[in-house]
Structures are given as C-alpha cells and as structure tokens.
Automatic annotation (TrEMBL):
It is a multi-pass membrane protein. One of its GO terms (molecular function) is serine-type endopeptidase activity. It is found in: Membrane. It comes from Gordonia lacunae. Pfam families: Rhomboid. PANTHER family: PRESENILIN-ASSOCIATED RHOMBOID-LIKE PROTEIN, MITOCHONDRIAL, RHOMBOID PROTEASE. InterPro entries: Peptidase_S54_rhomboid_dom, Rhomboid-like_sf, Rhomboid_protease_S54. GO terms for cellular component: membrane. It comes from the Bacteria. Belongs to the peptidase S54 family. Keywords: Hydrolase, Membrane, Protease, Transmembrane, Transmembrane helix. This is Rhomboid family intramembrane serine protease. The keyword Chloroplast does not apply.
Length: 237
C-alpha cells in the first residue's frame, strides 16, 4: 500500500518568504546602513522604475517585491504576510499559495508600469500582500461566510494607501485584483468550465493550474509590454 500523503500543518512557504525578505533587507542595511537601506547597491539593482524596465531590466518586475525602504516598511509588510499567509497557505497548499503570491506581485508591478508616475520608485511586498487580501476574500465568499471582516480590512488598507504619502496605490490595487483573480481561478473556475460528469480533484487541479499559468503570463506580459512601449522620461540615478 502506498503511503498516505498528509497536508502540511505549518505555513513553511510563508516562513520562507519572510526569511528571504528579511535577509535581503539585512543585506541592504549592511551595505547602506539602517537609516538608508534604499541606498544599497542591492536595492538600486532591483527596485522598480519605469525607465529601467524600458531599458530591458525586466527582472525588476519581480525583485522589487523583495525590497523595502525602512525598518517600519519591512516590519509592517512581514507582519501582514504572516497574519494572512499562514492560513491561506494551509487552505490553498504550498504550490497554489506561492502561485497566487507571485501573480499578485507581478500584477502589482504591471499596474505600476501601466499607470504610475514616471518618477515613481517602487519597492516592497505590499502588492503581493494585497493579493493575499484578495485571495482571502475569495475563499471567504466560497465558504459562504460573512465577508464583512475581510472587506473592512481591505477597505481600511485601501484608504490608508490613499492617505499616506509615498504609497504605491496602483501597485496595491494591481496586486489585489490579480490575487483575487488567481484565487477565483482555483476555487470557482473548475466548477464553471467542467461538465458535471468530469468534476474530480484531478481535473479541477488541471483547470486551476492552467488558469494560474495564464494569469502569470498576463501579469508578466503587461509589465514587460508597458516597458517595451514606454517613451517617457529617463531617470538618472
């Protein structure tokens, strides 16, 4: 008899994401000091600026999501990641959870590339974390539980994003939309497209992964495409 696979009981991917973010922040502090981690060469090589992406530095669409401007910035984001991620990871499974996180991160970067001010320098895990908020909302709706608490959290954070200076509202909203869409692809799409006689866990998983791959390509394509057609100002560091 084959051994039975058990679902993970600890949010290992969430712990790993927090560790990576903290490690990169620590390296930036070692290079530039705790007062100005944004001055580190690691930071300048990975932050998100439209003209840099237009120059072909497409990795910034991803790496910007692992950089932070200050101790408070990284602390708030990592606390939020822990609170949201620990339950979502166990609900979705490690693979799907990481896919939703990555798609939300790239969706936030795409929104910045498409709509943000040319001078805006963007960094932080907030876009991905807003994606986790969207994911939590979709799961709550699927479970037919009152969405009011999650809606209040999302609403409060959106208002905060508009109220505080230096916050990438567009990155947050892009992450929220793509995170919610990715989770909806997992929990709603299989029932919508599979005939009743073919609805089984294997088929549902295939549909979900195909949709996740499509959203990943869309988010990445929008970010790269915005860079390719960009003809605005070139920012000299």
């Amino acid at each position: 008899m084959a051994p039975t696979r058990t679902a993970p009981t600890q949010p290992y991917a969430t712990y790993a994401l927090i560790a990576v973010n903290l490690l990169i922040f620590a390296l930036c502090v070692l290079q530039a000091g705790v007062g100005d981690p944004g001055g580190a060469s690691i930071f300048s090589a990975g932050d998100l600026l439209k003209s840099d992406v237009a120059a072909g530095e497409y990795w910034r669409l991803l790496t910007a999501g692992f950089l932070h401007f200050s101790v408070m910035h990284v602390a708030v984001n990592m606390l939020s990641l822990y609170i949201l991620g620990r339950d979502l990871e166990l609900a979705l499974g490690i693979g799907r959870y990481l896919a939703v996180y990555g798609i939300a991160l790239l969706g936030g970067s795409a929104a910045v590339m498409l709509f943000e001010n040319d001078r805006a320098l963007t960094a932080g895990a907030s876009g991905a974390i807003y994606g986790l908020m969207g994911a939590m909302l979709v799961i709550i709706l699927k479970a037919r539980v009152s969405p009011v608490p999650v809606l209040l959290i999302i609403g409060f954070n959106v208002v905060l994003s508009f109220s505080l200076p230096g916050i990438s509202v567009l990155g947050h909203l892009g992450g929220l939309v793509f995170g919610a869409a990715a989770t909806a692809a997992i929990v709603y799409l299989p029932d919508a497209v599979l005939p009743a006689g073919r609805r089984n866990p294997q088929a549902a998983s295939r549909v979900g992964w195909i949709a996740l791959a499509a959203l990943f390509i869309l988010a990445l394509g929008l970010g790269i495409g915005a860079g390719v057609v960009y003809d605005g100002m070139i920012y000299i560091r």
